[in-house]
Amino acid sequence: MTTTQEIIDLEQQYVLQTYKRPEFVLEGGEGVWLYDAEGRQYLDACSGIAVNALGYRSEAIVEAIRQGAEGLLHVSNLYHTAPHALLARDLCQSSFADRVFFCNSGAEANEGALKFARKWARSKGHTDKTGLVAFTGSFHGRTMGALSVTATEKYRAPFEPLIGNVAFAEFNNLDSARRVIDQNTCAVIVEPVQGEGGVTPADPEFMTGLRALCDETETLLIADEVQCGLGRAGALWAYEGYGITPDMMTLAKPLAGGLPMGAILLTQIVADALEPGDHGSTFAAGPLVCSVAHAVFKHVNTPEFLNDVKTKSDYLAAKLQKEVAASPLIEQVRGKGLMWGLVSVPPAADIVTEARNHGLIILVAGPNVVRLLPPLTMTQAEIDMLVERLLKTLEAMG
Ligand SMILES: Cc1ncc(COP(=O)(O)O)c(C=O)c1O
Q1: Looking at domain 4-58+303-397, does it have CATH number 3.90.1150.10?
Q2: 71-300: which CATH architecture?
Q3: pLDDT tens-digit profile of 296-352?
Q4: What's the pTM value of the predicted model, to 2 decimals?
Q5: Closest Cα to atom 7, ligand 1: which residue?
Q6: Domain spans of the chain, in order of start
């Protein structure tokens, strides 16, 4: 038997210290609840950072894994398998996209989308059209390409030089975007709801304006829906709320119910620029991960499920605006769907730490924003508990 302290000691001795983990060890979960090795129970409003959309031990996921485990786990992308084709069909048929490329994470999806944009511009004979535009507050991942379009200086600076020809405009400021998007831009990448950068939804005029600017300059618009996609923003895809369609959309986090998977959805116009050998991945799109993703997708993509998310989103929004925004420790409440940020007076990390003492797991989105990402399956009664525990946390700190 290994104790909590022994596990923490081992982690600190052997694991590269790129995360500061709290002093407990998670051991199990059921629905929206997590349990630690000491038997403490936590209401989870983090969802493994927006991954566990269906909560823990979801029947749909457990069953898909059980069945998938009996079949082929991996055969490589050199061969056809049914789950791959069926999942691709359903993602395309439910979105603007004509094609999908599967990968293993959000960063990889963005990395691929940036590559596709450059190849698309080159295939049209525009050798100078290599520019990429991203926004303040953005987070697109930690690999070199994805990091190059991620705004946070702290993440970028130690690894410079990053890839060239990237310009940043101010998020939600169309004039600023207009100053950097031109004929030499091949892609603009934007999160319809910024996650890590502080849970900030894009303004409707900003998204429609970006679409128009991209059309004027023949630039591809990439919607990074790694965090806000697949129901999280209150609709299947966050772009739907803006009445526009992107040219590419990147997905990951909740896609395969906790197994690693990313995807790039794209239009045929972009797809026409890519040919065999241009991009690839050993692990991506294996039969097991695709079967599980297909089960998750079929579960989420029903009017009943999405309507329920919408109803609960409105319920949570109203409670946060009324009850939590009244706390003197909270300056602003903002978000969309089941993705909310509480702009805090004290450091957000202190609120997250105190919340654990009240049996609540939440996370930060920058130094002064507390982030709530409950499983999409959280019931209204559980939302009441979430808000109650949040208020107790703020009271204890106030
Ligand atoms: C919007 C967005 N894009 C990309 C990523 C990177 O995803 P991953 O951590 O799977 O590489 C994240 C992760 O938080 C994200 O929130």
Answers
A1: yes
A2: 3-Layer(aba) Sandwich (3.40)
A3: 999 999 999 999 999 999 999 999 999 999 999 999 999 999 999 999 999 999 999
A4: 0.98
A5: 106
A6: 4-58+303-397, 71-300
Q: Which residues of the chain have pLDDT under 70?
A: 1
Residue closest to 393 by CA, chosen among 334, 351, 348: 351
**Token match 């059209």: residue?**
129
Report pLDDT for 166: 98
pLDDT in the model for residue 114: 98
- Quick check: CB of 196 below 6 Å from ligand 1? yes
Q: How far, in Å, is the centroid of ligand 1 from the Cα of 227? A: 7
Whose structure tokens read 């100053």?
179
What is the tens place of the pLDDT at every residue in 194-239?
999 999 999 999 999 999 999 999 999 999 999 999 999 999 999 9
Gap from CA of 398 to ligand 1 centroid (Å): 33
The answer, yes or no, to whether any atom of ligand 1 lies below 6 A from the CB of 192, is no
**Alpha-carbon distance 320 to 245, whole Å?**
30
User: Ligand 1: distance of its center to the CA of 392 in Å?
Assistant: 31
Would you state the torsion angle of the CA atoms of residues 114, 116, 117, 122, taken in this order, to the nearest 10 degrees? 130
Please report the sign of the dihedral spanned by the C-alpha atoms of residue 174, residue 175, residue 180, residue 181: positive
- Main-chain dihedrals φ then ψ at residue 92, nearest 5 degrees: -65, -45
Rg (CA), the chain: 21
Report pLDDT for 199: 98
Asked whether 106 lines ligand 1 (CB < 6 A), one says: yes
